[in-house]
């Protein structure tokens, strides 16, 4: 596993299975291909898994996480985070969305809140969001509390 330094680092990874920890500082990590595991650390980090089935962990800062193409798992951490999704990004899982604190940014495939289909699974404590070939399972969410204020549109 690679570790970044304590400053604001930029890490461009490989097309293989990378594991990187960002440490302190406002880090930027781009995973490219492969099934990557990226840990942001304590800064305001930007993590992009690239293609592949990636696992992104933001950490303590106000992070921006994007799984990109593939079936990804995103966990922001304790601060207010932004989770970014676009059209045909796959089937992703968001583990720790906090209503009123975190935001979901949609870059392509939905221009407004009404373009998002909200489903309530028969079992479990999750809400499923669908738009333009992307499925997002939000664990611990309540469909009744999702509203336009939880989303940002590009």
Automatic annotation (TrEMBL):
Pfam family, one: HemolysinCabind
GO cellular component terms, semicolon-separated: extracellular region
Compartment(s): Secreted
Primary localization class, coarse: secreted
SUPFAM superfamilies named in the record: beta-Roll
InterPro entries per the UniProt record, alphabetical: Hemolysin-typ_Ca-bd_CS, Hemolysn_Ca-bd, RTX_toxin/Mannuronan_C5-epim, Serralysin-like_metalloprot_C
Assigned keywords, A-Z: Secreted
GO MF entry, a single one: calcium ion binding
Superkingdom classification of source: Bacteria
Protein name: Calcium-binding protein
